[in-house]
Amino acid sequence: MAQARETRRRILAAAHTLFVTKGYGRTTIADVAAEAGVAPETVYSAFKHKPALLHRTWDVTVGGDDEDVPMLERPEPRALFAEIDRQRLESMGGHAREAAAAVQPDVGEQECRDVLFATTDGTLWHQLVERLGWSDERYAAWLGRLWVASFVLPFG
Fold this sequence. Notes:
Layout lengths: L1 H20 L7 H8 L3 H8 L2 H14 L11 H29 L5 H11 L3 H9 L4 H16 L5
Helix pairs in contact: 1-2, 1-4, 2-3, 5-6, 6-8
């Protein structure tokens, strides 16, 4: 087990060096194997194909180690994102309380907070503005209409 892990580390280090110096397109599995001191079959056995080797090399470069845990599933980033979400939810609770005092919305404070939280994480903005080409002004006007329709009891 320890030898296999060390072999994978050597292969990843070799791949990283070669991808940086020669480029991904000019680096072959045989090049990686030679640099790592293993047979090409060993590289294929460990990583299946070149795109998987690149992906794993990227993971190690970004993550700093060869643990088989995706970066966003590691304890440190998860704790950071949980704290950001906690603070954002608390902030949206403050906005919901202010809305309740100002306009007496047709929904409860918690539902108002939850809708504000869900619609302000950047996902909707990214989808509509970045992916579908909406202007920021159009997005802001739409979001305002969505909130009014969600929170305020219509007249009449």
